[in-house]
Design a protein that fits this description.
alpha/beta; ten-stranded mixed beta sheet; nine-stranded mixed beta sheet; 7 helices; 19 strands; globular
Length: about 325
């Protein structure tokens, strides 16, 4: 079943003790993405599902995070784009926990045999729930959260959001890169606001697409947390984007051998006001000089076959303050 956001009026009753905070769990799916947001009212939004295969490893890890969060269903599953490390885990996850609404940018642009097989497996699960195709400017109807779609299907929002619209000095030196415009460039990106707290997640939006979003003026206002685009790979994360978000902290869903490049690291460290980069893994690509201190790295020993992996947890408050915790060692920092 397909519906539009304008017509959607679904009450998702939470099996959850309400709190005053927005909580996000950054689940280790070994270089893919799976981020679980839980609202103060107990509604859940899962951004991506990690990989297929590995004996259901990523689905198991997501289900464990959901149990820890006290939720019994996924109210909204937002798929940023149709690549194996983002949408591959959908069938295995759907077998473990109910998924009520499937949110995506529409049709895949990759119709080779592997791309079509992946997309067809996803559509089979979508047919069992409610399907929402979004476009830039749409709002995800999550109670108490202002969740705006800023990119989808290769397009960006037409006008700056409130608080944005500033001239971007990095645009003068922006240079396009020779990068294939595939499903990464179709990524459904989100600007999420909870009171005074703001976070952005653009999936794997490509470097060249970032110019459309942030030049010649910014279309996204300053944020508190930047969820690192494309796992910290240098096909994304241009200075025009990253420097002009002015995030206080970045959270990178990298794997041990995927993402976390030195270039992405240096760009983030050149961002005005950014003090910390939290990582799901120690990144071999970055080398010793381009990794955070171990207390900010959730998984320091690469072992993709282990059953348990540690998460990074974010708790945000309406007044804009937030704290990030490394669940491997319970190290917490407040911002």
């Amino acid at each position: 079943m397909k519906t539009s956001l304008a017509l959607l009026a679904i009450a998702c009753a939470p099996a959850f003790a309400a709190s005053d905070d927005l909580t996000a769990y950054f689940i280790d799916v070994e270089g893919g993405q799976a981020t679980l947001f839980v609202t103060p009212d107990g509604q859940s939004v899962l951004v991506d599902t990690g990989w297929a295969g590995f004996n259901g490893r990523d689905a198991d890890r997501i289900a464990a995070a959901a149990k820890q969060a006290g939720i019994a269903q996924i109210d909204y599953l937002l798929i940023t784009h149709f690549h194996l490390d983002h949408v591959g885990g959908v069938p295995a996850l759907a077998a473990k926990i109910p998924i009520r609404n499937f949110v995506d940018h529409g049709e895949t642009v990759e119709h080779d045999a592997n791309g079509q097989k992946l997309f067809d497996a996803y559509r089979k699960e979508v047919a069992k729930g409610n399907h929402i195709v979004v476009k830039p400017g749409d709002k995800l109807p999550v109670k108490g959260i202002d969740w705006t779609i800023v990119t989808a299907a290769g397009k960006t929002i037409a006008k700056p959001l409130a608080g944005a619209g500033k001239p971007n000095p990095d645009c003068a030196t922006f240079q396009k890169r020779d990068i294939k415009d595939d499903e990464n460039g179709q990524s459904t990106g989100s600007f999420i606001q909870f009171g005074d707290f703001k976070v952005v997640d653009l999936g794997d939006l490509l470097w060249n697409k970032e110019e459309d979003l942030m030049c010649p003026v910014t279309k996204i206002p300053y944020v508190d947390v930047y969820i690192t685009s494309h796992h910290g790979m240098n096909m994304s994360g241009s200075p025009s984007l990253v420097h002009n978000l002015h995030a206080k902290a970045a959270i990178m869903d990298n794997g041990a051998t995927k993402g976390g490049t030195a270039e992405a690291w240096d760009t983030m460290h050149g961002t005005p006001g950014l003090t910390d980069i939290w990582q799901l893994h120690f990144a071999t690509a970055g080398g010793p000089q381009h990794n955070s201190p171990e207390n900010m790295i959730a998984n320091v020993v690469p072992d993709p076959d282990r059953d348990k992996a540690d998460m990074i947890k974010l708790v945000a408050h309406k007044d804009g303050h937030f704290e990030i915790t490394n669940e491997r060692n319970n190290y917490t920092k407040k911002y």
